[in-house]
Amino acid sequence: MKMQLFTLLLAIVAVMGCSKSDVQIDDTPVESPEPIVMDEMPPMMDMGGHPEHGPHGGELVELGKEAFHIEMMHGSGAVAMYVLDGSATKPVAIEAEKLTVSLKHDGEVKSFELPADPQPDDESGKSSRFTSTQAEMDQWMEAGAEGAVILQIDGKSYTGKISHDHDHEGHSH
């Protein structure tokens, strides 16, 4: 919220611009600097301040009110989900043996489990990566299945909505 207020204030200053000033310091007239020009936000960032895609290039799923994120990777015959922090840039290793994903595709609903697959930097007994080699799950994800991922982080339950991103490459629909 503070960042949005600062950005808004900066935008107002940029629109108003600055003009020559009559302010004097040490009896020397001083001119104000040129107006500040704000470039558009880089395309890899959204208005929430985090990337549109995760560190591995995958789709992001929000958990809580951006307390955490899940990065989803699919399309190679397997599915990987990475638990990320609120900025969607750093891995967060959690104490979970698996993630449960419920998907709906062509009127059929099915649950899939992704066992923990710790990354080398994850703390012992924790994992920030969960993977499934079930070809059916990957096929459903590639076909645009929607649903939810459910997990617990520090004793609190989070549910993230999985909705298919129709604008990303690699899909033929």
From TrEMBL:
It comes from the Bacteria. Residues 111-146 are annotated as: Disordered. Residues 127-136 have a biased composition (Polar residues). This is Uncharacterized protein. It comes from Stieleria magnilauensis.
